[in-house]
User: What shape does this take?
Amino acid sequence: MLTSANPAEKRALQAIYEERFGIPARAMEEWFVYSTGSVLWGLRDAPHLDEALAALRFERTGLPLLRRAGRFWKPTTVALQVVGKFVLRNMLELSRQELETILIEGELRGTRADVEQGYVALTGPDGVVGCGLYLDPDEDHNEGLLISQLSKARWSGMISSAVQALPGR
Assistant: This one.
């Protein structure tokens, strides 16, 4: 039996998606959100969802929306890809070359962006590719830094695709 996420978890979800990315709260109103401790999951709510789920055996079901990263909640790549069309702010568009660099090296130095420091939605030529962590320039580094937060399991396929797309291949 799935138990609904607690109020603090639901507030965290709203804060990340609505306040950080500008996604209207109504875009997620029809979701049933539950927690497995380190992950908040979402399912499209429907009449009799409880009965339907009770009849099934599963470990996890739904879309991972947020994952606990230390003390903070991080939006998942797959969730940002699903809701990407609703993102209004803190979105960083990357060229193919920048996307290739961040996929291979895990970071992109010298990034100056008109976004708030923190998690950002990364977009490429084909739409939202996932999540990055943007750090403003400071006394330790005089250039902005973008750190990939893309799932390492997804990296291998993306890197292969990026290398295949290189001119001369």
Summary: The mean pLDDT is 83. The chain has five helices and nine strands.
